[in-house]
Specification:
Radius of gyration: 25 Å
Number of strands: 13
Number of helices: 11
Strand content: 5-15%
Order of helices and strands: EHEHEHEEEEEHHHHHEHEEHEEH
Largest sheet: 6 strands, mixed
Length: 398
């Protein structure tokens, strides 16, 4: 870990090209340019300012007509690299026009990195990202083929990350690259290539109880002009190429919001969580409780990854930390892949009870609350929170 963290403890014809220029500056993007505290303020995790870098005269080609998140994101990523910095985009389906472009994505029927052509619609196309690490230490093939954005990310993703975080070590860069695909890019690929979120062949079949239309791919789709939409100012249909620019910048904003969390929060937190995991038997002999200095740092994904990496058994059940008011919290570790199912919830008789009533039921001094869902509780002292965890472990095993 020292090697990774050295410094930490109008409609147009399909054949008519339109040159587009994407201004990098975005009000929404700058919402993410914040200053973080603690170890994340290390120069290693400081974002570089690239606004003043020279623009490129090279052109990026993609298809005209209805756009999706994959080419909108792919164009944005290319525009962050020095070679295609703020390059104009040509949207056309005319091969003669696309042949004049320096790089082409999501159209043309060719995937060839040497000729800078990145389409994924070929019949025999079967390109996927690196295999996924499983809980047991083995690897498995990805669920989805790479879309246009996935191909761009495969070849240029590390360059994009290095543009914003040039001081990352090679190990940190590789970790951020993998995390970014797992938490952001893979979903764009899967949606674009038609992969259902539930695996096939479930018996009995499982149906989604609700559908989410707030994701990036849905929001990009809504940027396309509607069939009957008219601009109130011009009394004409909206310009689809202008809408593409809005969608592309939207993709960039989302990309940077995820990347900044990974690099500026997750990576600095990893060494802290790793130390807590390594010290888990000093916290409690069970090895199922860990102590963190603060609950504000992201720990869930790091706990899962470290458990896999180190083949930890038994799995960690509870995490202790202080909140902003100084209260000690006990939080259950959820089942990996589940949002609301805990590995071991807090005792049912504690749930929804507070203060002195909870002290009496639990027989532990300093108890302040237990959430009605049983996933989190509080105590005035570390010793009290630790005792709550120990009692919960004992009751859970009965």
């Amino acid at each position: 870990m020292a090697a990774i963290f050295p410094n930490l403890f109008s409609f147009t014809s399909r054949t008519l090209p339109i040159l587009l220029s994407l201004p990098f500056h975005s009000t929404s993007f700058h919402l993410y340019a914040t200053t973080t505290m603690s170890s994340s303020s290390s120069p290693v995790f400081k974002r570089a300012k690239i606004d003043g870098l020279p623009s490129s005269t090279k052109t990026i080609g993609t298809h005209s007509g209805t756009f999706q998140a994959d080419e909108a994101l792919g164009c944005w990523m290319l525009r962050q690299t020095p070679t295609y910095r703020n390059s104009p985009v040509v949207r056309s389906r005319d091969p003669a026009v696309l042949d004049t472009c320096d790089i082409v994505i999501d159209v043309g029927g060719i995937y060839d990195h040497d000729s800078l052509r990145y389409d994924h619609h070929q019949r025999d196309y079967d390109e996927k990202f690196t295999p996924k690490q499983n809980k047991d230490g083995t690897t498995s093939e990805r669920c989805t083929k790479l879309s246009a954005s996935g191909l761009v990310y495969r070849h240029y993703g590390k360059d994009v990350i290095k543009q914003y975080y040039p001081d990352l070590t090679e190990d940190m860069l590789n970790l951020a690259y993998e995390k970014m695909y797992n938490s952001f890019c893979e979903a764009i690929d899967a949606i674009d290539t038609g992969v259902e979120p539930l695996p096939e062949g479930l018996d009995p079949p499982v149906a989604l109880v609700y559908r989410d239309s707030t994701g990036l791919s849905s929001r990009v789709s809504r940027c396309n002009p509607r069939w009957n939409e008219v601009d109130a100012t011009t009394n004409q249909p909206p310009n689809p190429d202008e809408r593409f620019e809005i969608a592309s910048q939207m993709c960039g904003d989302d990309f940077m919001s995820v990347l900044s969390k990974i690099v500026e929060a997750d990576l600095p937190a990893r060494s802290i969580v790793e130390q807590a995991v390594n010290d888990r038997f000093e916290c409690d002999a069970s090895g199922e409780i860990i102590k963190l200095p603060s609950g504000g740092l992201p720990w869930k994904s790091e706990v899962y990854e470290l458990e896999h990496q180190n083949k930890i058994e038994p799995l960690i059940k509870y995490v202790l930390y202080t909140d902003q008011a100084g209260m000690w919290r006990i939080q259950c570790v959820s089942v990996e892949g589940k949002a609301f199912e805990n590995r071991l919830g807090l005792p049912k008789e504690w749930r929804g009870v507070r203060d002195q009533d909870l002290e009496k039921i639990a027989g532990i001094e300093g108890c302040t609350f237990c959430h009605a869902a049983g996933f989190i509780g509080g105590n005035k002292s570390y010793e009290g929170a630790l005792e709550m965890a120990r009692v919960a472990l004992k009751k859970g095993g009965e």
